[in-house]
Structures are given as C-alpha cells and as structure tokens.
Fold:
Amino acid sequence: MKEQPGSSAVVQAIASDLGGIGYSGIGYITSGVKAVKVNGVGPSMENAVSGKYPLSRFLVVYINKKPGEAPDPLTLEFVKFMISRQGQELVVKDGYYPLTAKLIEEELGKLQ
Structure:
C-alpha cells in the first residue's frame, strides 16, 4: 500500500504498476489507466447520478455563512456560475460529469 498526495499522483502511480489499483476522480483518467466496472456496472454519468455505480460521489461545496442568512452577493454569483451552462461546460472540459438539469434546478432552489 502506498499513500499518494493527491488524485493525479494516484493515477501516475497506477499507470506505472501493472498490478496497481487505486481510487481517483473520473476526471483523472488517462490512457495509462482505466476505470473499472463494479458488479458489472461501469462508470458513466447516468450510473453515477443514479447511484448504480458505487464508487461515485458528488463534489460538495460549503458556503461559510450563518444559518438562515443569504450568502453575500459575490458568493451567490460564484455559486450561480458553478451551476450555470458555462460553469458546467468547464466541468465537462476537465473530464468530470456535469450536473443534470434536475439537480441544477434543485440547487438553484436552495439559493432562494
């Protein structure tokens, strides 16, 4: 067992070890490694969102504010950008799965 300082290092270590196995985000997949099926279920956006692929998780963003208070305007605009079309295009560009329209709608509702 080897501990690595981050996801990129995990992928680099696995790529250089024929018997290696590790856990990293889907956005770190390279030609030297592959994502594995678990119980016959492969990694895909649909399987990750539905929970069928057990090695998936959402990235959670926390906002430092008092309960019941609205976020400050700059923070609110940043969160809106993250879930906007432009923000989600950046997510895809980096190799990750974007939020579904339903999830974006739910998150926008939380900002009200």
About this structure: The first helix runs from residue 7 to 15. Residues 50 and 61 are 20 Å apart (CA to CA). The chain has a mean pLDDT of 90.
